[in-house]
Structures are given as structure tokens and as C-alpha cells.
Amino acid sequence: MQEVAEAARDSYTRIVATLIRVTGDWTLAEDCAQDALTAALERWPRDGVPANPGGWLTTVARNRAVDVLRRAAVEESKLREVAMLWEPAPPDDRLRLIFTCCHPALSLEARVALTLRTVAGVPTAGIARAFLVSEATMTRRLTRAKSKIAAARIPYRVPAGEALAERLPGVLAVLYLLFTRGYDADGEPAFADEAIRLARLLAALMPAEPEVSGLLALCLLQHSRRAARRDEAGELVPLERQDRARWDHAAIEEAVEILARTPVEGAYAIQAHIAACHAGERTDWVRAARWYDELARVQPTPVVELNRAVAHGYAYGPEVGLGMLAKVEGAPEGYVLAVEGDLRARAGEEGRAAELFMRAAAAVPDGPERRALLKRAQPPASP
Questions:
Q1: What is the per-residue DSSP string for 155-197?
Q2: Taking a C-beta distance cutoff of 8 angstroms, is the pair 324, 313 a contact?
Q3: Residues spanned by the domain of 298
Q4: Do 357 and 367 reside in the same domain of the chain?
Q5: Claim to verify: residue 27 and residue 80 sit in the same structural domain
Q6: How far apart, in whole angstroms, are the C-alpha atoms of residue 71 and residue 60?
Q7: Which of 186, 268, 337, 346 could crosslink 215 through cysteines, CB 3.0-4.6 Å?
Q8: In this protein, which residues make up the domain named RNA polymerase sigma factor 70 region 4 type (predicted)?
Q9: By the 8 A CB rule, do 155 and 116 touch?
Q10: Domain membership flag for residue 39
Q11: What percent of the chain has pLDDT over 90?
């Protein structure tokens, strides 16, 4: 039922976050939230959608938690938890939940999986498919992550001051990894949508943090191209060959507006400005090259240097790009070969380019990227 799905998107995280804060029991919180959704699926088609769907779900979940705790209320502390469920919730419960799920004491994989399950409400089976494991295995991993939070006494709070500055990049990294797991050629598209939704939530809760807004703008710009990234056969279409009329221009406009009011203080905002260079009728490669220079200053990684060589090669000629590429060290071999092949092709060295594309294809896993490289290695069709 669509109304239940919409209410779940709006309220699930808030319900789970509040119940975890009060009870400290992750399983109870998730079970009660799921029970409320099940009740909505049963009752709303019969009784009609309530005027305040989110409030209805919250009340049902809270009542369910009260019932469970009352049955277990053999200690005064449990009785206090029952009373706390009826107190007004502080406004930062969802922030507390996000920062707890993304705590650095957990492995990166556990942080992503726990964020998907607890914050985004993605079913365990869907998370298992993304991680290429069985549902039972993913259930055990999620259980271990929750147990570690309890055993390590990880605080259920938003850090402040210097601690916030230290922890926020890790939270953003989890959200961006979640986005890329949906945006990648063989990813789960729904995960990209969830990452954008969570980035919106974080931006609304932390409006004074420029990198949060930068991450949201970056995800919106990249995801705006999703409809044009594959052809009718499902194969990848390079950026320069995509039908830009099929891009989500409303998302592009939103991202550009966000960037216009966001100070550039970190890598996500810079990457968003680079993505914005592609958003017009044609790519502004000169501006992109300048932004890549800035990105290389704050994030001097081999992959950034590789992309910087691409941008300069398109902005100032393939010879410039090849000169910069020769200085790149440590980037994945397949990507280096693919970039050199592209620059050689633009320089008119078609035979050399084809050889490089073949070698690049052999260096990447089987999938859409390899097929795209093999296609580029073929001579152009005769007119």
C-alpha cells in the first residue's frame, strides 16, 4: 500500500531512533516499528488512512514497546523506561542513531549494513544481496554489530566540538559508500535513493555543516544521470555520449542551488562542483580541470590525480593529459590503461588506443565496465 510506504519513509527512522534511545534495545525498537507497519497494512485499507500517518505509526510502535516492557517490568529500571516512552522526544534522536550506526569502532562494512537496516529500514534480505551473502549471514553480522555497540558501551549521542569534527567525515564516508553501492554499474539502485534521502535528513539536521550539503549536492548531480547511463541493451554509456535531455534537470537545479549557498570547505563540495561542470549542454572541461587542481590539493590520492589528468587532457589537449598521466603512481591498472587509451584515441592513435582498451578490459572484473572497454577496443563501424 503506497500510503504505508510513504509513511514508513517519513517516520521509520524517527520511531526506531526514539525507541532505541529510551530502551537501549535495538531489536525491540526495530520489531516494534515493523509491527506498526504491519498493523498499518492490515488496518488502513479497511479503516482508511489516518490524518497523521506518521503519528499513527509512532503511537502504535510506542504502545507495542510499552506492552513488551510491562511484561518484562520486574525491575524499577524497566518501569522507568515505560514512563519515558511517553515523554516528548528530543529533536536529535535521528542524529544520535546515524552517529551510533557509523561509529568508528565498527568495521566499515558493518557501519554500512547497520545504517541500511536501522536508519534506512532496508530489509535484511536486500542488504544481503548487495553484500553477496546469505540472509542468515547478514542477520548474524547485524547482530554482532549491535552486540558490539552494547558491549563496548558506545554512547548513543551526537559528539560535540572537536569530537564532532573528527566523527562527521566518517559518517559522510558511510553515506557516500552507500550511494556508490547503488550508483555503481552493478549496484542496487535503491541504495542510491536511500543515501540521498539520508543525506537530505542529515543536511536538515546539521545545516551549519558545509560538507553535509556538499555531499547531498554531489549525490544529486551524479544520480541525475541515472536514466542515461545505460543503452537499450543495458550497457554503460560514457558520459560524453549520454543523451543529456534524459538527465534529471530538477535534481541538477536543486544541487546547483545548494552549491550556490554552501561554502567550499572540503572534498565533497569540490567534487560536487566538478560534477556541476558536466551539467550544462556540454562539459566545461577548463573549469573542471581547475576544480580537480583544488581537489588534488585537499585529497592527493592516485585516483584523484588520474581524474585530474583526464580533465586536463580534455581541457588543454591529450598531450597535456598524457604528460600528467605518466606521473600518476598507485592508481588501479585497469583505470590507468583505460584513461591512456581514451587520451590516445583523442590524439588520433586509434591502434594504440584499441590495444590499451583490450589490456584495460583484462584488468577489471567481468561486468558492465569490461564490456564497455571491449566495445571501445573495436574499430568503428563502417558508414
A1: --S---THHHHHHHHHHHHHHHHHHHHHHSTTS-HHHHHHHHH
A2: yes
A3: 292-331
A4: yes
A5: yes
A6: 17
A7: 268
A8: 98-149
A9: no
A10: yes
A11: 51
The C-alpha cell that represents 42 in the structure block = 492490515
Q: Domain end: 66, 89, 112, which one?
A: 89
Q: Where are the alpha helices (DSSP H) in 122-266?
A: 124-131, 135-151, 162-183, 189-205, 210-223, 249-260
- The amino acid present at 26, given as its one-letter code, is W
Taking the CA atoms of residue 298, residue 303, residue 304 and residue 309 in that order, the dihedral angle to the nearest 10 degrees is 150
189 vs 135 pLDDT, higher one: 135
Encoded amino acid at 276, one letter: A
Considering its fold, how many domains does the chain have in total?
3
Q: Which amino acid is at 36?
A: A
pLDDT for 92 equals 65
- Print burial letters for 149-170: b (CB count within 10 Å at least 16), e (below 16): beeeebebebeeeeeeeebbee
Summarised one tens digit per residue, pLDDT across range 14-26 is: 889 888 888 888 8
Q: Cell for 24?
A: 537501549
